[in-house]
Amino acid sequence: MRSPAEAFDAIERTMWDGRAQAYAASFARLCAYPVGALLDAAEVTAGTYVLDAGTGTGTAAMAARRRGARVRAVDADAGMVAAARAGGVDARVAALPELPFADGEFDAVVANFVLNHVGRPRAALAELRRVLRPGGRLVLTLWSARRGAGQDLLVRACEAGGAVPPAGLPRRDPAEDFARTPEGLAELLEEAAFTAVESTELEWDHRATVEEWWGGAAAGVATIGLVVTSQEPETVVRIRQEYERLSGEFADGGGRLALPHVALLAHARA
Ligand SMILES: C[S@@+](CC[C@H](N)C(=O)[O-])C[C@H]1O[C@@H](n2cnc3c(N)ncnc32)[C@H](O)[C@@H]1O
């Protein structure tokens, strides 16, 4: 019998499997927005030894390399690792909360939109602290409980199109959960024995075409992708129609959508 955290992680594994290219073409651009702030907060400069945990297609790792950092990366999904490696990243398959690195190895660890995909966030943070040298920097981003209107566009389209919530959505064990607020994330980091904790919200408008924003979900990327791709074909047609109708609210006047998003960014020292 699986624990709730193991069940959560198992769904996460299937959710990303085979979706690296679709992710790269859609949500990876969204998740790229905070990478500059993430690396600044991690004090990544030439020679910094950095781990990008949950690297995906390698956005943060590649940006750190461009700063002259020495970069290692892991991801739980083999397709993501292959995509990151194709971009020149020294990446390998590993799943939090277990990392194949020695104690105190890294100057900095970054995890961009990863902690929200991990079944045991406290155990994951303990492991991220283990691989940091004393005084090393941890920087995290994840989606905030306070959502931007752009984050709900596809959700609203699903509701209006009559989508039926699928049985296999990832559900976090309440005992493992934490408040997705600056205060909640800061408390979690302090509980994990990090010091100099600071946590804040980032807000931005993600720009994407109607097709690009639809493409990630239609290809099954992330939770919204699970919802869309588990519907009957006629329901998907209705969701798409509703999506096109609701997209008008976000037209930026230049042929794209301006989609407001809110995320948390926290940094701390080991
Ligand atoms: C939203 S994506 C973010 C990817 C990347 N950090 C970026 O900025 O584009 C989440 C990533 O976390 C990875 N992931 C999920 N659970 C994980 C775990 N337990 N350990 C490591 N990676 C994990 C997924 O495979 C996926 O690549």
TrEMBL record:
Methyltransferase type domain mapped to chain residues: 51-140
Enzyme class at the top of the EC tree: transferase
InterPro entries in alphabetical order: Methyltransf_11 (IPR013216), SAM-dependent_MTases_sf (IPR029063)
GO molecular function, one term: methyltransferase activity
CDD domains named in the record: AdoMet_MTases
Enzyme Commission no: 2.1.1.-
GO biological process, alphabetically ordered: methylation
Membrane spanning residue stretches: none
Keyword Cell membrane: no
Keywords carried by this UniProt record: Methyltransferase, Transferase
Top-level taxon of origin: Bacteria
Coiled-coil region list: none
Gene3D superfamilies: Vaccinia Virus protein VP39
Pfam family, one: Methyltransf_11
Designated name of the protein: Class I SAM-dependent methyltransferase
Source organism per UniProt: Streptomyces lutosisoli
